[in-house]
């Protein structure tokens, strides 16, 4: 008996799947009048990007936001177009009179919306990777594209998850206003709240890696929201045709989205701090060398000015570009032993923005980024003092500590020789 029931359920699911296909086809065909505009919009934007990238006027990364905006705009437009056509032709009211299960009707709308959005997204991905082949990896970086892909894909899922329940609970006009308000809240959530929160809580700017992690978490969360949205749409549809209000299901949807999005933001924050801390802990001291340069002559004796050149390295290969990592940080140097006696120097500090700036960058060696900065000793040495100092110089007289708001207090920096 159980086996028979299982087969019946499988057959029922199969029949529902077959019935969904004609409805999806109907939705897609209803957008045929706008596809010329879609093709011209996508083609025009990418022709503009191809021209500026292939002529080496600029890199693609400067323009990635443009196709992202176009994808979202066109995706929303296609989904909204299907629903507006139904409202204008009163198709939705006639559909309820047909022997079609409302669950199939709603499932088809999610399927057609996802398919239309997927077609636009796929076309942009193909054009991107074609440009990657033509222009090369130096001008087209796949890392930045993946970040935009996650953000755009998440936003498209959110459009489907919010617009369709509001449409089935009321109409396309209410769904449009719901999307307008949701878009405003999303912009505040993505660009305003993180900046205010990081400045208020951590006194730091938001690093790019935060948005990378947030895009991944939001994509995963949006898939959950999409599934939840489908069941909310079923709930709203039943209430609508019973002439009952749909505030409760829509309110539950909004609350669930808020909770899940706040959770994604918290996970991205925790992951960001872990990544930045690991990056800072991984910075090593490669060595310290000193040089003496002749300066003024006093009583016929030549004086020498001493310059100290600490060298640091990191295997993150992005430290000087991720300036938020080193912003407002200090490298505190303690000078001990004979070096302190010769130079009359007990310590000094180096701003991390200076130590890991583009001017201090010395390239990649042995898979690590190297940075060299300089500091000047406060005293001048005579010829004899200079020779004695250089002879007895010991770089182990220098102790380096790193202080940053990303860390819990100060950490002592390791020497690279200790790891070899």
TrEMBL record:
Q: What is this protein called?
A: ABC-2 transporter permease
Q: Which residues form the signal peptide?
A: none
| Annotated TM spans | 34-52, 64-85, 113-135, 147-169, 181-202, 214-235, 247-268
- Which InterPro entries does the record cross-reference, listed alphabetically? ABC2_memb-like (IPR025699)
Entry keyword set: Membrane, Transmembrane, Transmembrane helix
Which Pfam family, giving just one, matches this sequence? ABC2_membrane_5
Q: What is the lineage of its organism?
A: Bacteria, Bacillati, Bacillota, Bacilli, Bacillales
The answer, when asked if Transmembrane is one of the entry's keywords, is yes
Q: Which domain of life is it from?
A: Bacteria
């Amino acid at each position: 008996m159980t086996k028979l029931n299982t087969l019946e359920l499988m057959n029922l699911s199969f029949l529902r799947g077959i019935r969904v296909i004609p409805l999806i086809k109907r939705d897609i065909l209803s957008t045929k009048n706008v596809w010329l505009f879609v093709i011209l919009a996508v083609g025009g934007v990418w022709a503009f990007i191809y021209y500026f990238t292939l002529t080496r006027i600029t890199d693609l990364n400067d323009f990635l936001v443009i196709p992202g905006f176009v994808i979202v705009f066109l995706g929303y437009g296609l989904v909204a177009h299907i629903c507006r056509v139904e409202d204008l032709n009163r198709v939705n009211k006639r559909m309820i009179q047909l022997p079609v299960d409302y669950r199939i009707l709603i499932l088809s709308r999610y399927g057609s919306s996802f398919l239309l959005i997927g077609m636009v997204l796929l076309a942009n991905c193909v054009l991107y990777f074609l440009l990657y082949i033509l222009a090369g990896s130096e001008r087209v970086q796949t890392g930045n594209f993946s970040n935009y892909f996650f953000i755009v894909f998440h936003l498209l899922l959110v459009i489907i998850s919010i617009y369709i329940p509001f449409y089935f609970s009321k109409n396309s006009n209410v769904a449009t206003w719901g999307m307008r308000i949701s878009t405003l809240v999303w912009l505040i959530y993505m660009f305003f709240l993180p900046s205010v929160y990081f400045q208020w809580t951590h006194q730091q700017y938001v690093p790019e890696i935060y948005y990378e992690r947030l895009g991944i978490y939001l994509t995963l969360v949006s898939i959950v929201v999409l599934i939840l949205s489908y069941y909310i749409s079923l709930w709203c549809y039943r209430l609508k045709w019973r002439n009952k209000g749909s505030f409760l299901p829509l309110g539950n949807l909004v609350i669930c989205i808020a909770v899940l999005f706040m959770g994604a933001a918290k996970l991205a924050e925790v992951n960001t701090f872990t990544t930045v801390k690991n990056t800072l802990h991984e910075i090593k001291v490669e060595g310290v060398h000193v040089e003496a340069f002749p300066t003024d002559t006093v009583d016929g004796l030549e004086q020498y000015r001493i310059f100290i050149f600490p060298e640091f390295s990191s295997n993150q290969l992005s430290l000087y570009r991720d300036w938020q990592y080193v912003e407002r940080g200090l490298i505190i140097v303690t000078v001990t032993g004979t070096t302190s006696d010769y130079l009359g120097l007990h310590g000094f500090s180096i701003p991390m923005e200076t130590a890991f700036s583009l001017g201090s960058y010395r390239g990649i060696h042995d898979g690590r980024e190297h940075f060299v900065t300089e500091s000047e000793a406060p005293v001048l040495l005579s010829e004899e003092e200079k020779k004695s100092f250089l002879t007895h110089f010991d770089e182990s007289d220098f102790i380096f500590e790193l202080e940053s708001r990303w860390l819990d207090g100060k950490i002592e920096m390791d020497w690279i020789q200790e790891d070899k």
